[in-house]
Amino acid sequence: MNHAGMRGSAPAESVGSPDAQFPEASVERTVEWVDTDASGHQHNSAVLRWVEAAEAELFRNLQLPRYFPSAPRVQQVVNYTAKLWFGQRVRATVKITALGRTSLTMGFEVRCEPSGARDDATPNAGTVAAFGTVTTAHVPQGACTAQPWPEDFVRAVQGTA
User: What is the pLDDT of residue 160?
Assistant: First the structure.
């Protein structure tokens, strides 16, 4: 998942190693009728819902359920590059790309998956339909400003837990 020209900014104060191999997770979904707009292709909000589902999978895999109530979004950048249509299968993948002292940035992509049919005529099969970044800040319950990530969180994200 390397998108040249990807917009978004990484946290200013990185606590992760520059060589860190951060974790990623993916989910597969079907573009449902509710996911489409009046033009018949995906609504812009559907992409972020799929990305958030992949994000939830990532933090479930890391056994960090307390991430969600304490990680509001501070920036979202989405680049739409292809249309997705009702009934198509998609794969949303998120990967942590930077871990700052109080923030975390994930890169993501939503790719149109082949349907698996023998004569697959899925429009745009294999194409990246959207990519971008999501940056969150660590704001624990009761706090009004961003706070440093807990040590166990940093270890889990860096794979040293």
Answer: 82
